[in-house]
Amino acid sequence: MNTDPRNSARIEQNPLDEIATTAYGLGIVFGIALALLPRLSSSSITIYIMALSGFHFLEYWSTARYNSSKVNKDSFLLYNGHTYILAHLSALVEYFIEFYFFRSYKISNSFRLIQYFGFFLLLVGQIFRTTAMVTAGKSFSHIIETSHNPQHTLVTNGIYSISRHPSYTGFFWWAIGSQLFLLNPLCFFGFLYLLWTFFSQRIRYEESLLISFFKADYLNYKAKTSTLIPFIK
Ligand SMILES: C[S@@+](CC[C@H](N)C(=O)[O-])C[C@H]1O[C@@H](n2cnc3c(N)ncnc32)[C@H](O)[C@@H]1O
User: Fold this and answer.
1) Is 95 in the pocket of ligand 1 (CB under 6 A)?
2) Ligand 1 pocket, 141 CB below 6 A?
3) Model confidence pLDDT, tens digit, residues 113-139
4) Diameter of the chain by CA atoms?
5) Residue from 37, 10, 46 nearest 182 by CA
6) Topology in the membrane (predicted)?
7) Ligand 1 within 6 A of 168 CB?
8) pLDDT digits 0-9 by tens, 137-155
9) Roughly what angle, to the nearest 10 degrees, separates helices 44-66 and 16-36?
10) Can you list the domains of the chain with their CATH numbers?
11) Of 209, 227, 202, residue with least CA distance to 128
12) ipTM score of the complex?
């Protein structure tokens, strides 16, 4: 058993009432969406809500399980900035407006292939995201580390040998896939633009720090591993 206090979750950063309420709330949202699944003429919105609720639960769970010293009430990543909340609200608004005015397009069989592809991206995105958090373990942090701490080692194995930034790649394709799945053309392009801009800047900044921490080791890793986000080398 690991008794090193540096690896333990800090109780003052994890108010148990808040953690329990948040997890319960996410479970209720998931459960309501699941119960509505067979009752609606289009199931994509309920599956999207289940995927969103599952995503936020897994963010806390994988941090708590594999990176416990860094877990805190914000690890659910529910308050991920105004743009993030606005993006999901826009997706819901677009979906419902189009469902109201162009119902036949939203439930048409002609677009099934796009939806299947979107669902596939959503699923693969979630697998990349969670696997990255599990693989990186203590080297992972929701906030970019600006100084090198001794527990932070360079991770290049497992999913990090497939993509240099698997958690970002996963999040990128998850979000793009969700808009294909919802058949939301406006949010599809909006998400694509916002996410690409966000991740290209974040990766540039994160890598400048990683190079200062790991020097040639990171440069070698970078030279042989792609990001799997289009046009981000
Ligand atoms: C939110 S995590 C994202 C990790 C990675 N960019 C990804 O997408 O899987 C950010 C932290 O991970 C660290 N990090 C990124 N790539 C890493 C790697 N290959 N090995 C160790 N730490 C890494 C960064 O220093 C930063 O503090």
Assistant:
1) no
2) yes
3) 999 999 999 999 999 999 999 999 999
4) 59
5) 46
6) Multi-pass membrane protein
7) yes
8) 999 999 999 999 988 999 9
9) 150
10) 10-224 (1.20.120)
11) 227
12) 0.98
